[in-house]
Amino acid sequence: MKSVTALLSGAALVCLVSGAMPLAASAAECSGTIKVLAQPRDGLTLLDKYRDEFAKLSGGANFQIDYLNENDRRAKTKADASTIGRYNVYYIDEANVALFASSGWVAPLLDYYPKDYDYNDFDPGRRAVATYDGKVWFAPLTGGGDLMVYRKDLLEAAGIQPPRTLDDYIAAVKKLNQPDKGIYGTALRGQRGSGANVWRWMPFFKGFGGQWFDGNTPVFDSDAAVKATETYLELFKYSAPGTQTGSWDEAVGAFTSGQVAMLTESTPLVGMALDPKQSQVSDKIGYLPPPSPLTGGGYGHGLAIGTKANKDEVSKQCAGLFIAWATSKENEQRRLEEHQFSELNRSSVFASKKFAELYGPDLGQALADTGKVTAVNFWQSPLWPELGDRWGIILEELVTGTRTDIKGGLDELNDFAKQLVARGQ
Question: How far apart are CA 392 and CA 400, in angstroms?
């Protein structure tokens, strides 16, 4: 096998990748610097300790990770990927994977991800979010679905079994609500936004059988959407103070401060709730999958192969090797050792003895179970943020009572969606 020279981002990057070799014995030969645009994550900064390992694995390559906060990262990745393409690897997420994939700014990951790095070991929910139009576009760095997290002490005192169905969940929320004692049945998100109140509403919408479109025709002014909204608003009667106009921070903060009996939230909550430095109830919590028929709100952030900087197949293979190494079982095990709960994505890690030692014997199974019901609840389209944010405004008005007509709000959103679709065609 001979080395092939490719020009990447102004750096000479020599690559020859064999996808059939495991991490410890890869036959890759790379040199130069792989440029990565990302947002800060502990799991990425941890890689700095192992630069020599990647250099040995790749035959001499280095990597440079430029960090920006989430909003700036999204703006710059879009600008760079759509124009000159200075970066070999982009950090993308569920909000923009459809745009990047449909625009051809990133390459199908599994075409260049060495098979021995076992992509299928990633949690099924993470894999679902990384998939668009039948192809995988990124390797997960963080993500998850939803877990129902509850105060064992409060449920036991009330004689309530942890609920498995939504009907039982609602009944328990009502019974556990004791505002005179500073305890509230649940915590939701009321603040407007596709990633705020709409994110928490969508599991009800999907669980009740709702869908966004039938072909290009919006159909979410449906009975399922009305029922989802009615249920969401009903639960808000028992939601902790501040959550009616709050988002993730307020909902999670209410639980970790001991004000909330039960909530269903994104899985990183568990890492915070179990940490005695962040939680006043760390020794009192239990967890289960979302109550049936709710789906888990699948989300994920990860690394993707840029197409403009990687102008040939060999260059894409080298970028794929870096991504595979950065998200490998070995590096995820290191994140586990560093207690980086929100950076864990692999089923093998959730099932490991070390994970059970750190987080107890039940959490790994709960994560495996929730992975089975985790779904892509949002409309996978570059137009989703506009649609989701518009519904977020209407939903916030319904939560706060400045609007009362649920069906009228959904009809208004339906008309807006028709305009979006017509504009995008």
Answer: 12
Which CATH number covers residue 35? 3.40.190.10
pLDDT digits (tens, 9 = 90+) for 333-350: 999 999 999 999 999 999
pLDDT tens figures, 60-95: 999 999 999 998 999 999 999 999 999 999 999 998
Let me know the angle formed at the C-alpha of 290 by 289 and 292, rounded to the nearest 5 degrees: 110
Q: Which domain holds residue 58?
A: 4-143+299-359
DSSP conformation letters of 127-184:
HHHTEETTEE--EEEEEE-EEEEEEHHHHHHHT-PPP-BHHHHHHHHHHH-BGGGTBB
Beta partners for residue 62, in sequence order: 33
Predicted TM-score (pTM) of the model is 0.86
Q: How open is the CA angle 241-245-250, to the nearest 5 degrees? A: 60
Residue ranges of the alpha helices (H) in 295-342? 313-326, 329-337
Pick from 343, 359, 375: which residue ends a domain? 359
Residue 92's region, left for phi above 0, alpha for psi from -120 to 50, else beta, is: beta
SS3 (DSSP) at 275: coil
Distance from chain centroid for Cα 333: 20
